[in-house]
Amino acid sequence: MESIYEKCPFMTTQRVLQGKWAIVVLYQLSTGTKRFNELEKLMPEVTRAVLTRQLRQLEDDKLINRKVYAEVPPRVEYSLSPLGDKFKKILDEIEIFGLEYINELKITK
Amino acid sequence: MESIYEKCPFMTTQRVLQGKWAIVVLYQLSTGTKRFNELEKLMPEVTRAVLTRQLRQLEDDKLINRKVYAEVPPRVEYSLSPLGDKFKKILDEIEIFGLEYINELKITK
DNA sequence: CAGGATCCCCCTGGATACTG
DNA sequence: CAGTATCCAGGGGGATCCTG
Description:
Chains A, B: It comes from Metasolibacillus meyeri. Chain A has about 110 residues and is α+β, with helices and mostly antiparallel strands.
């Protein structure tokens, strides 16, 4: 890890958000705990392998929790960590901005 | 452009934030209009070519304005567009989150 | 059900050299 | 001063196939 990441809150957040599906996954989990295949259904554009990698990445970055139940068939639940919970504020603003952005460009173009 | 980008505010914002230096550039411009070489000095880790590309990308995405003055030596000023201005709210939350993130991981690790 | 293991390919960041 | 023009290498996304 480099020094700029440790000092600058913007670079730090940027690093966490690099994954193409990071924001959407965090959003999905912000509405509640989800199982793996629930996330799959909510995000049909993402393949399994990619979704798994994105989840691992967010887990490594301490934004989400992964809970495995020792059952058959297996059950795995993903949820926001305490740190991930603090990300919700960003998500709220992203949603507002995103909608405005979509609207604005619809008019302009 | 694909349909999911046009509909989902999270995907839309994600696309805009893909560039490695997007957030930092937006932050720098959120504190006021800057010339190209000011940005260079504020972000020494980024090379010229890369910074230029990032600026063009944000310009294409309508988040920043590029104003060229017909002078010698040339002067180019970058600033937030009206749309970019709306991004400030996200930046505020990113800063808060980033600082909390840095703090938390310092303690945990 | 929830993945793991590979492979491939493209895109993007970065380095370097040149310019109106 | 504020870029362009190339080139290169690495990594991440995506597809496909396999598994406890």
